[in-house]
Amino acid sequence: MRELKGILNQFQGVGAHQSATAIAGGHINDTWLMNTTSGRFVLQRINHHVFRDVDGLMANIQLVTQSIRDRLNSLGVEDRDRLVLELIPTHRGEPFAHSTDGGRWRVYRYIEHSRAAGAVPRAADVFQAGLGFGRFVAWLAEVPGDRLVATIPNFHHGPARLAALVDACGRDLAGRAVDVRAEVELVRRREPLLAGPQQALAAGRLPLRVTHNDAKSSNVLLDEQSGEALAVIDLDTVMPGLVLYDFGDLLRTCASSSAEDDPNTEALTLNASAMEAAAEGFLSGAGGVLSGAERESLAIGPAYMALIMATRFLTDYLEGDVYFKTGRPGHNLDRARNQLALTALFEQHHAGLTSLLGG
Ligand code: GN1
Ligand code: MG
Fold first, then answer.
1. How far is the CA of 325 from the centre of ligand 1 (A)?
2. What was the pLDDT predicted at 359?
3. I want to staple 56 with a disulfide (CB 3.0 to 4.6 A). Which of 140, 149, 160, 289 is the partner?
């Protein structure tokens, strides 16, 4: 606690420390809600083993939050402060601070009277989460992708993720390859699905935009009272990307009947009203800026993103659980199995998704 207080004191205008509460849930960074005499702040320790270029990462977040603020200004939107995160600079005017143990820390102002959509969100919340992510893409439509640093190169690059899995199998560092032959085969047989988006990009059929890249429904804050979408949070992976990534992640997280790490895949189903609400919300937020081809591409997004996650969880399992935080033995394998089952369900539902999207 004393350490947190000392770190918080490196930032401007944060008042005197009163209390700190850990916010659990993320797989990568560590987060605390800090109560001070000047209000509440979110303090985060950035995992710099995952995000090696913290300068680039923080420059991205500064650019993105400032661009949204400028856009809201030009649109004359009121209540702008609740629609975009505010990064607090250090006393030295820097976007993040260092601690003596080598940690990298940043602070956001906490958005009061807000909540995130629950684990199994209601349709109204899902619509708002979709609206939040759709607007995010639309508000950043004028920012050229090459102004952002690719903080994790090839983050949602299907062929690169598949190659990493095949490599992890070959190296078999944790001696687990023998346990996961069936799962690896389920990924490998879907090579065309993993290759499709990159091919469309290379052929110029889909444009590179600024996308969020971790568009789970819980990463949009909602107003506590009205339930309306406020700011999009967790901006670490905002990078150049395809819009289908964000739409895909949104459905992957809000339309599944089970938690991401639930190994009981027999019971897994898709929630039709959540899919409908997410699609409606996303299109009403982003629809205006999407090309016809982009709109069509969205239907493949949920299966693609579930498969990307299955591939990543499986790779981490094979490498001995070095990337994602795990809470039990086999946790990454449970996650991979869950996401593979979800991939299959979204594949079966492809025609339904296409018609939902007006195709
Ligand atoms: C990680 O830490 P968290 O939960 O926000 C991961 C995402 C995954 C997600 C799966 C930088 O995000 O890509 O979708 O876990 N973030 C990174 O729950 O790898
Ligand atoms: Mg995240």
1. 10
2. 66
3. 149
pLDDT at 1: 63
CA of 195 to the centre of ligand 2 (A): 24
Alpha carbon nearest to ligand 1 atom 19, residue: 28
Q: Which of 262, 333, 332, 340 is nearest to 305 (CA)?
A: 340
CA nearest neighbour of 305 among 356, 236, 353, 359:
353
Per-residue pLDDT, 19: 95
**The pLDDT value given to residue 118:** 76
Listed as ranges, residues in the chain with pLDDT below 70 are 1, 359
Rounded CA gap, 262 and 275, in Å?
20
Name residue 71's amino acid.
Answer: R
Say which DSSP state 175 is in: S
Q: Which structural domains are found in the chain, ordered by start?
A: 2-111 (3.30.200.20), 123-356 (3.90.1200.10)
Please indicate, yes or no, whether the overall pTM of this predicted structure exceeds 0.80. Answer: yes
Beta bridge partners of 40: 35
User: Closest Cα partner for 340 from 119, 199, 180, 196?
Assistant: 180
From 23, 155, 214, give the residue whose CB has the most ligand 1 atoms within 8 Å, as the site to mutate.
Answer: 214
pLDDT at 178: 97
Query: Measured between alpha carbons, how far apart are the two ends of the chain, in Å?
Result: 54
Which uninterrupted H or E stretch holds 154? Answer: none
φ, ψ dihedrals at 106, nearest 5°: -140, 165
- Ligand 1 site, CB within 6 A: 26-28, 50, 214, 234, 236-237, 260, 309
Taking the C-alpha atoms of 278, 284, 290 and 293 in order, what is their torsion angle to the nearest 10 degrees? Answer: 50
**Residue 161 has what pLDDT?**
98
At position 106, the amino acid (one-letter code) is R
**What pLDDT does 323 receive?**
95
The pLDDT of residue 266? 95
pLDDT confidence of residue 264:
95
Distance 28 CA to ligand 1 centre (A): 7
